[in-house]
Design brief:
CLS_N, rod-shaped, 0% strand, membrane, transmembrane helix, 88 residues, mainly alpha, cell membrane, 3 helices, Putative membrane protein YdjX (TVP38/TMEM64 family)
C-alpha cells in the first residue's frame, strides 16, 4: 500500500512539473510573439511615415540594432515627431 501511494505521489509531482513547464513555455512564447508584433508594427509604421529616406533609414537601423527599445522609442517619440513635422 505504501508503495502504491509513493507511486501516485511521484506521478502527481511529475505531472505538476510538466504543467508548470508548459505554462512557462506558453508565457515565454506569448512574450516573444508580442515582441515580434511590436517590431513588425514599428517597421511598417516607419516605412509608411512621411519622413525622408535618411530619417527612415536611421529609425530602421535603430529598430534592428535595439529591437525592443528602438521599436518602443519609435512609437513614443519618433511617430509623434514625424506627425508634427508634416502637419504644417
Amino acid at each position: 500500500m505504501k508503495s502504491l501511494i509513493a507511486q501516485h505521489s511521484a506521478l502527481a509531482a511529475s505531472t505538476g512539473e510538466q504543467v508548470g513547464a508548459w505554462v512557462l513555455t506558453g508565457g515565454v512564447l506569448a512574450v516573444v510573439a508580442a515582441f515580434a508584433v511590436l517590431f513588425i508594427a514599428a517597421l511598417i509604421s516607419i516605412l509608411g511615415s512621411g519622413l525622408s529616406g535618411g530619417m527612415k533609414l536611421v529609425w530602421i537601423v535603430l529598430a534592428f540594432l535595439a529591437p525592443f527599445l528602438g521599436s518602443l522609442l519609435w512609437f513614443v517619440v519618433g511617430r509623434s515627431d514625424a506627425r508634427k513635422r508634416f502637419a504644417h
